[in-house]
Amino acid sequence: MEERFQLGQAGGRLLMREEGGRVTFEAERPEDGRGLYKAYLTGAGEKFLLGTFMPEGGMLRLRRTLTVNELSRRGLWPVTGGAAELAFAFGQGGGQPQAQPSRQHVPQGWRLESAPGRLLGDRLLVQSAAGLTGALVRRREGGFDLALAYEFNRPFPLTPLFCFARLEEINGRVYAVFRFNQKGCPRQERD
């Protein structure tokens, strides 16, 4: 079974394919440079976060597979539609790279990493880190923290991990800090 839905006022489309108890969703919308967009499923009066769109081929795209059983438990089967919502606005000047820390401004306990993608254990994250030229890394038991300079009027670094980031001030500057295990996979635990 295959169905198509429009993604509401934010624009875009959602393709849904059911096969063998699994449902694959493919969402896409135009890249407008305004910020991060999230996709949602709707069904039987419920709303479910499908995920965050990623830039790909001049569009914002998202792919995810769920089971019919999981969708039923959440009150979303049958799926009746979808929505795309601006979750985080870049503000003025979006699309410009974040200023990176210099060697003389590396905080105690951290080290400067010029190619943070090499530390990550997932292909999507490695692709998202392409172009990031500097980061702060702090080793910790069972893994490491990765801190990327963050400015409220610039694109969010490592978009797929938007929900895992915590904003911290380090040496008077705001960073998006992500926690990873030893294999470079994201961890959600907090201090």
Descriptors for this entry?
6-stranded antiparallel β-sheet, mainly beta, 47% strand, 191 residues
Model description:
The chain contains two helices and 14 strands; from the N terminus they run βββββββαββαβββββ. Strands 9, 10, 11, 12, 13 and 14 form a six-stranded antiparallel β-sheet that branches. A five-stranded antiparallel β-sheet has the order 1-2-3-7-6. It starts with a strand and ends with a strand.
Summarize the structure.
The chain is 7% helix and 47% strand.
SSE arrangement, N to C:
EEEEEEEHEEHEEEEE
What's the helix count?
Answer: 2
SS content category? mainly beta
Spans of at least 5 consecutive residues whose pLDDT stays below 50 are 92-99
End-to-end Cα distance, whole Å, is 45 Å
Strand content: over 45%
- The helix content is under 10%
Strand and helix layout:
Blueprint: E1 2-6, E2 13-19, E3 22-30, E4 35-43, E5 46-52, E6 54-56, E7 59-67, H1 68-73, E8 81-89, E9 111-113, H2 123-129, E10 135-140, E11 143-149, E12 166-170, E13 173-181, E14 186-187
Antiparallel strand pairs: 1-2, 2-3, 3-7, 4-5, 4-8, 6-7, 9-10, 10-11, 11-13, 12-13, 13-14
